[in-house]
Amino acid sequence: MVVPRKVATLPRGKEKKLIKSISSLKSSAVLGWVKRLKKQYPLAEVYLVGGAVRDIILNISDIKDYDFVVRGISGKSLQEFLERSGWVELLGKNFGVYKFRPHNLPKDFEPLDVALPRSEISATPGSYRAFKVKFNKDLNLEQDLLRRDFTINAIALRVDDKFKMIDPFNGVDDIAKKNIRCVGKAQDRLAEDYTRILRAVRFACQLNFKIAPEVKKVIKKLAPYLNDRVKSATRHSKNKPGDWVSPREVIAKEFLKAFYFDHLQAIQLYDQLGLFKILMPEILNMKKCPQPKKYHTEGDVWTHTILALKNLESNKFKKFSAQVDKLLEIRNKKLEIGDLIKNRLELILAVLLHDIGKPPTLQTPRKDKTDRIRFNNHDNTGAELASKICKNLALSAPEKFGIDCENISWLVRKHMLLVHGHPDVLRPNTIEKYFFSDRYPGHNLIKLAWLDISATITQNGPLDHELVQALIKRIKKMRRLVVKKKSQQVLPEHLLTGDEIMQALKLKPGVQIGKIKDKLREKQLKGEIKNKKQALKFIKK
């Protein structure tokens, strides 16, 4: 394919902002090395390419990933220069791609990607790990951009001594129109790497863009290939026979990112493009799965689930969520950004899957002679299905966006906690275990209960949150027992250890000791036993 040279132009106001952004980068460690490279190698050309250019045009300030292409300098000379200028790691067997951390780059900043211009040929259809790569310091930049996925990522910005934007595929125009199109023919680009299917969806959710109709058409056609396995190894492939053509960890990363950035649009696109059918077909069984109209006038299980997910974005829920976070801040932890992402994703997925056990447990008066539509044990059945889905898609694998599959399963299993018993009769030990420790995601369980109730519309109208508030009241009451310990706030320690109980009662180790310890803890958390003396008196009874 012959790629025309095209220098893009922006409206004057936007071009000024762009130049200002690049100027500020030049004085930072991100571009500080470029001036020194140009001084040593005057013929070198340095281009910022890909997502960073797109984000600068969109005026996104928090950019972490910077990709550079350097022309006019050999790989050996480039590596020697980078090694003098900071930390360098050569990526893979192919000479020409480097992870580079310049001196003075902040430690929390991702290393820069620096590469020679390259062309790629797909050796195995659909696999991003099976490309034959050829580096050429003199390859024109348009040919390098040709190998990229979408037009919005195929823009280059010269950042050495000249300001020039190269845009052979009209990516700048697509950014302005909020349009996701492929470089060249959509069939060719997506067939080269099937995970680009999910990448298109992720960009739509992340940037609030629309996927072009011709791209959607190809996605629907190629989606089934996401479940293909490698049949035979090729010379340029890292895959072995039997491996997934589209690695689960890459699928997981794109899936989780899409749901993190805009879970409602992600659900709509995964449904519309047939991706749920391929990756988690169990979820579609919620459609047209009836619910008892006395308790669920909102509709079938799918409608109930979507309503709960919509309510997650409501102002009422955001206010309630902040209240829960403040209430359960027992350990005064300063959460990293990864923890915040994980917490949000686990809640979204728990809401999405909380009733996935209803279709397989459905019983109706007509078919099963029950008094009404019932879903006996759907919480436990759903937990098993949720665990299977999370593990099959390797949702715990991605860095930064990976979730805990056991947390999802636990949330689905326990989402009926307040239905099975009023909070007033919950054992204090249960409240301690679920809401005062790091063992279980109790904060998300309360939020899931609130969202489930908010999406339940009975014949008498929406349910109120009486049970949730009763649970919060119980937690607040127990919170009065919290003590400070090493700058943390925790519940008081057990008044007696297992050894002390055995010594006082002259008993041998066994199940009985655990039961006594639990009973004692229950009395302690109710505030009925406050010291060791009272504890010893209690157990001797």
Summarize the structure.
This protein is an alpha+beta fold.
Mean pLDDT: 87
* Rg on CA atoms, Å: 29 Å
Number of helices: 25
What does the overall shape look like?
A: globular
Overall helicity? 40-55%
By secondary-structure content and strand pairing, the structural class works out as alpha+beta
N- to C-terminal separation? Answer: 88 Å
Low-confidence stretches: none
Number of strands: 15
Instruction: Quickly count the domains.
Output: 4
For the biggest β-sheet, the strand order reads 3-4-5-2-1-8-9
Largest sheet: 7 strands, mixed
Strand content: 5-15%
Could you describe the 3D structure shown?
A hairpin with a 5-residue loop joins strand 8 (156-158) and strand 9. It contains 25 helices and 15 strands. With 541 residues, the protein is of the alpha+beta class. The chain is globular, with a radius of gyration of 29 Å. Helices cover 49% and strands 10% of the residues. It has a seven-stranded mixed β-sheet with strand order 3-4-5-2-1-8-9. Strands 6-7 form a two-stranded antiparallel sheet. A two-stranded parallel ribbon has the order 10-11. It folds into four domains: 1-177, 2-Layer Sandwich (Beta Polymerase, domain 2), CATH 3.30.460.10; 181-231 and 243-279, Hydrophobic Seed Protein (Orthogonal Bundle); 281-481; 498-540, no CATH class.
